[in-house]
Each structure stands twice: as structure tokens, then as C-alpha cells.
Design a protein that fits this description.
This is Trehalase family glycosidase. The protein is mainly alpha-helical and 427 residues long. It has 16 helices and 9 strands. The chain has a single domain, classed as Alpha/alpha barrel (Glycosyltransferase), CATH 1.50.10.10. It is globular, with a radius of gyration of 20 Å.
């Protein structure tokens, strides 16, 4: 049964984006997520560029206005007080002029800014605003390698599952067992008031999320200390691939705008990162895997994190293998791309990042596959993404087996990605 008339999808998507726009920044969805989220905003800006270029630049500028002095760009900016979300600013205790969280999120900004720049009708405005953002994004990239790759391996680690943006992925399960739960403050989750508990992370996971936050807070959020002090250090291929892609895009943009030093620094990170990524390849799974930096071992968990590297310039044969892996998964799921391999017994079709389809992830995969000439599978993912919208509306994520909408509704980044998918089908 269709809930949205296909010819009205564009207008609906714009309506969702505008309704979540708080003026200067956009919330992911009302209720469940009442603040500004880092990677959500970068995807949102790409969506906004379809109908309001000026507003799109502002979305990213607002995010970077809250960059930390050391270069980190926080994963949440708590612009206005709301008690509808846990953990709020008092739990993070980061002592910033405008409250923020103390961890980061996937580095989508470099990619997003290049995209805004390339398609800008107002070339003068685009050059001016991109040029002002360049050193800020460069500082963030520099921060990543200085603080999250202390031994210079070429790959950065995440220290909290929320940094990957894939909160409760199966990828973290084993390492997460090592995170204690003793001594955490009593807390009340707010997410369960807005979403079905069966679609969300578990209580034990929340306790560990919180333990890490309290631990980092006790270290004064000093990024020079956090990496080595964290019992959770995961090298996620997807997270790294996004950073590598953004570094490549930032380098191109820097060349265009006459910032040679930024271009050189980012190109070096790209070549070191791509070389190091190869150590995460799994022949058995036909995709990349995470590495647990505390044990040095690859994590036996075939998630979307290991498919995402197609978004970066990985070798052609790897991209081909990944396309075949997605085709295999497509035979087991009605909608693609599931966030975890359905053949894995741990797969859960409705639980957040343990199986459901997310449109932002599909978008990055499609972009990468198209660049490699894997057009048939790229088109199939695009079609699947738009079918989910007509069947189930602009949900946060979807059950790959049934297409059922899950999590929050009228979701900003889903709407933004729909505008991109529509553009792809039109060209
Ligand atoms: C959830 C997602 C994360 C996203 C946030 C806001 O925490 O896991 O990736 O940024 O919601 O949409």
C-alpha cells in the first residue's frame, strides 16, 4: 500500500526539511532528537541545496561555529535547552560556551562542502563560503589523525559507538563487553518515549554508553588523553572511508581555491589511509571488517561499515567484490542495503543498526558504486530507497524484510537523501 504519491515525493521531502528547520540549524526530527547532530547536518545541507543554497551553507557554518579549540567538531550541539533527550548537556559537562557533547561523528563535511560548491548557482557566494570553511574542516581532519591515530597507522579509531553514528552495531558487541557498568549515575532514557523499545538499543548498551561518557568526562575531555585511556578503541572501515573521501574532496576543493598546503596535507592522509584500509579486507566476507585496536584483531562482523569503503577510492577489484556482496544480500532481503548481513544469526531486522536500512548509508554506497561503473546495483539501491519512501514515508530507518518504518518519523536526513535519489533518477 502506497502512503505517498510518487509524483509528490519532492514536495513532501522539502516540507519535512523545512518543518525541522530551527533557523540556522535543523533537528533530525522533532521529539526524539531536538538538537543539531553533526553528520545529519552535513547531509541535510546537501538536501537544502536543492531549494535554498544560502540556507545550505548556513547549516554547515552553524555546526563549525561550535568546533572545539583543538579542532574537534562535536557530535551534538545543544543550541537550546530541552529535557526531551538523554544524555543532555549536564551529563556531558564539556564546559563549552554553547553546550556540546564531547565526542565526534563521521567526517562528512569535506564531501558535503565540495558537493555544495560544485552545484552552486551563486559561484561567488560558494567560493567565499567554501574558502572560509576549508581551514576549519582541515583542522578537524588534522585533529582526527593527531588524536585518534597516535601511532600514525593511517587509520583513526572511534572511542565511543556513537562516534561511528551506528550506535548499536553488532561490530561493537565484543569490545563493548570490556566496558564496565559499575559506578554509573542513575538515569532515565528519553528515547523510549518517542520510539518502540524493540527498535532501539538495549538497557545494557545504554549503561556502557554512559560509562564511557562519564569516564571521558572524568579526564576533563582532554583529547590528548582519551584515546589511550579508553577501553573501547575500534578502527571502523566505514568511518575511515568517509574521512578519506572527505579528505580527497577537501584536497580537490583546496586546489581549486588556491590553498595548496591544505591540498597536500589531505592527499597524504588519503594515500596513507587507503593503503592501511587494505589490512581490514576479509576474503571470506567479501568486504572490510573493523579492527579492535586494543586486541589488534579483526572483528568477525559483516556490517555496512565494511561496505561503506566503496565511498572512498578503494582498488577496483575490491569495489567489484563489494558490489557482489550487496547482490548476495539483496537475494535475502526485500529492501537494500541492510545494515548487517542477513545471513548472520545476530541480524535483527528492526533493531536500529543491527539490520535496518538507512538512506544516508545507501546514498554513500550508491555514489561510490556509480563512480566505479557498477551502475546496475547502484540503480537497484536507488530504486529500493525510493520504494521505501512511497511505501512507508520519511522514517528514520526501515526493516529490510518488510519495509516497515522504524524509529522516528518525518526524518530530516531521510528527506534530504530522497532529494538526492530523485536527482539521480532524473539524470
Ligand atoms: C542516532 C543515529 C546517529 C544520528 C542520530 C541523529 O543516534 O545512530 O547516526 O546521527 O541518531 O539522527
Amino acid at each position: 500500500m502506497s502512503t505517498i504519491d510518487p509524483s509528490k515525493i519532492f514536495d513532501h521531502a522539502v516540507e519535512v526539511l523545512k518543518e525541522n528547520d530551527q533557523g540556522g540549524y535543523t533537528v533530525p526530527t522533532k521529539g526524539l532528537y531536538p538538537f543539531q547532530w553533526n553528520w545529519d547536518s552535513c547531509f541535510t545541507a546537501i538536501g537544502q541545496s536543492h531549494y535554498d543554497e544560502e540556507r545550505a551553507w548556513t547549516e554547515i557554518e552553524t555546526l563549525f561555529a561550535h568546533q572545539w579549540p583543538d579542532g574537534m567538531v562535536p557530535h551534538i550541539v545543544f543550541h537550546v535547552y530541552s529535557d526531551g533527550y538523554f544524555p543532555g548537556p549536564d551529563v556531558w559537562g564539556t564546559n563549552r560556551p554553547v553546550a556540546t557533547s564531547g565526542i565526534t561523528q563521521p567526517a562528512v563535511a569535506g564531501f558535503a562542502v565540495k558537493r555544495l560548491y560544485e552545484r552552486a548557482a551563486d559561484r561567488g557566494m560558494a567560493a567565499r563560503r567554501a574558502k572560509a570553511l576549508l581551514p576549519k574542516i582541515e583542522a578537524w581532519h588534522r585533529w582526527f589523525y593527531a588524536n585518534r591515530d597516535p601511532k600514525g597507522e593511517g587509520l583513526v579509531a572511534i572511542l565511543h559507538p556513537w562516534e561511528a553514528g551506528r550506535d548499536n552495531s553488532i561490530d561493537w558487541d565484543e569490545a563493548f563487553e570490556r566496558v564496565p557498568t559499575e559506578g554509573i549515575m542513575p538515569f532515565t532514557r528519553r528515547d523510549l518515549q518517542h520510539a518502540d523499545p524493540a527498535h532501539r538499543p538495549t538497557k545494557e548498551q545504554y549503561e556502557r554508553y554512559l560509562w564511557l561518557v562519564q569516564h571521558f568526562r572524568s579526564l576533563g575531555w582532554d583529547n590528548a588523553k582519551l584515546h589511550d585511556a579508553s577501553p573501547f578503541q575500534i578502527v571502523d572501515p566505514g568511518f575511515n572511508a568517509i574521512l578519506i573521501r572527505s579528505s580527497a574532496d577537501l584536497a580537490d576543493l583546496a586546489d581549486t581555491l588556491g590553498e595548496a598546503e591544505i591540498a597536500v596535507a589531505n592527499r597524504e592522509r588519503v594515500s596513507a589511509g587507503l593503503a592501511a584500509l587494505e589490512s581490514l579486507w576479509s576474503v571470506r566476507h567479501g568486504q572490510y571488517l573493523c579492527r579492535d585496536r586494543t586486541t589488534g584483531k579483526l572483528v568477525e562482523s559483516a556490517s555496512i561499515g565494511g561496505i561503506l569503503p566503496v565511498f572512498a577510492q578503494i582498488p577496483d577489484d575490491r569495489a567489484r567484490e563489494i558490489a557482489r556482496t550487496i547482490e548476495r544480500q539483496a537475494a535475502a532481503a526485500k529492501f537494500i542495503v541492510p545494515s548487517h548481513d542477513p545471513a548472520d544469526l545476530r541480524f535483527e531486522s528492526k533493531r536500529y543498526w543491527r539490520g535496518p536500512v538507512w538512506l544516508v548509508i545507501n546514498y554513500m554506497i550508491v555514489d561510490g558504486l556509480q563512480a566505479r561503473g557498477e551502475t546496475a546495483i547502484a540503480e537497484r539501491i536507488t530504486r529500493s530507497s525510493l520504494d521505501l519512501i512511497t511505501q512507508s514515508g520519511f522514517a528514520e530507518y526501515y526493516d529490510p524484510m518488510t519495509g516497515e518504518p522504524c524509529g522516528g518519523r518525518r526524518f530530516t536526513w531521510t528527506a534530504a537523501m530522497v532529494l538526492e535519489f530523485l536527482r539521480m533518477t532524473a539524470s
